[in-house]
Specification:
OB fold (Dihydrolipoamide Acetyltransferase, E2P), mainly beta, 5-stranded antiparallel beta sheet, 3-stranded antiparallel beta sheet, two-component regulatory system, 2 helices
Amino acid sequence: MWRPYRRPLVNKFADQIFAAKTEPGVVDIVRLPEVVCIRAAGNYIDFQLVNGHSMHRATLSNVLKQLPSSFVQVHRSYVINIAHLRRLQSELGRYSECVLTGNKIIPLGKQYRKALLQLLSIESPPSSS
């Protein structure tokens, strides 16, 4: 019996949207290019968008696993969209803040600094310890 070839369904929008169930019968769609950063607040996450924000019940670590590689954790409570990174600011010779679209300042955690600098192909300034 002949059967037509069926291509597997591939979500061509997987790197562009995040779907989150917000209440029974409701799924919010967050457009990832509009996400500047994501802030953890306990068991909730706050997608901080170019215009506004969207809260969802989830942990930052679980959401990070579902996001494309353009999202990078820079602090235990923050993930940034690298497309919205405008500047790194240094304090006492150490990069300590990320400046994002809209001049939003996000702390850069010590344990995440090296990975971000490597991603951006930037050498870490010598520490003055």
